[in-house]
Design brief:
About 45% of the residues lie in helices and about 15% in strands. With about 220 residues, the chain is of the alpha+beta class.
Length: about 220
């Protein structure tokens, strides 16, 4: 084997120990995160602590992104801040349920993610330069990898015992103006978060089969 990077030997040991300990998520874990989970449209009044949101983020941030660029940024809103600043920018059909959710998150992408790459991608500390001079490349990578992170974050929220409801029904320009004016951030999508009331769960809609969605060569 060629010379290892700093910390690589420890990483190999960690992964080998994990694979020896756990070969596959159990059925209940799969059901909780994806298999039997539903989008929620009604919420209990149980509060969601900052600590629980942080626990979910700290799990989600470990998901892979290209060159470890990590462009996702999050704004969490509760109470008056949500009701007054965000709810009016939601489509009518999303306003009441957004207002009712204990927490709503604006998941945004930072198009200047490359400014942190000297720290997040230390094996190539000058990597950010390739994005700094190409706004289209930076935007493309921010949107792709930020969406990856947003999906990880929703799975992590479910993993720590919360329910989620992602939404694209809002005024993106209005949200950007209200929350991100003068910054390098732009809104990706919005997620209601809390402990769902199962009375607001709808029947599961059809999914495409493996044969319809995939090709194997």
């Amino acid at each position: 084997m060629s010379e290892l990077l700093p910390g690589q030997a420890e990483a190999i040991t960690e992964v080998n120990a994990l694979r020896e300990r756990v070969q596959k998520a159990d059925a209940d874990s799969m059901a909780l995160i994806l298999g039997q989970a539903h989008t929620h449209h009604a919420w209990s009044d149980k509060t969601v602590s900052d600590a629980l949101l942080k626990e979910a983020y700290d799990l989600a941030k470990m998901g892979p992104t290209a060159m470890n660029m990590q462009p996702m940024r999050i704004v969490f809103l509760r109470g008056d801040a949500k009701e007054q600043r965000l709810v009016p920018l939601m489509l009518d059909s999303n306003q009441a349920k957004t207002n009712a959710a204990p927490v709503t998150a604006i998941l945004a992408n930072d198009h200047a993610f490359f400014e942190k790459m000297d720290r997040t991608f230390p094996i190539f500390p000058d990597a950010g330069a390739m994005f700094a001079g190409d706004a289209d490349l930076a935007r493309e990578n921010a949107e792709r990898n930020g969406t990856l992170q947003a999906a990880y974050f929703m799975m992590a929220l479910r993993a720590v015992g919360l329910d989620v409801a992602p939404m694209s029904g809002f005024d993106p320009a209005g949200v950007n103006k209200e929350f991100f004016s003068g910054t390098s951030l732009s809104t990706n999508f919005i997620v209601n978060i809390g402990h769902g009331d199962s009375a607001g769960v709808f029947p599961r809609l059809p999914r495409l089969s493996f044969e319809e969605a995939a090709q194997v060569f």
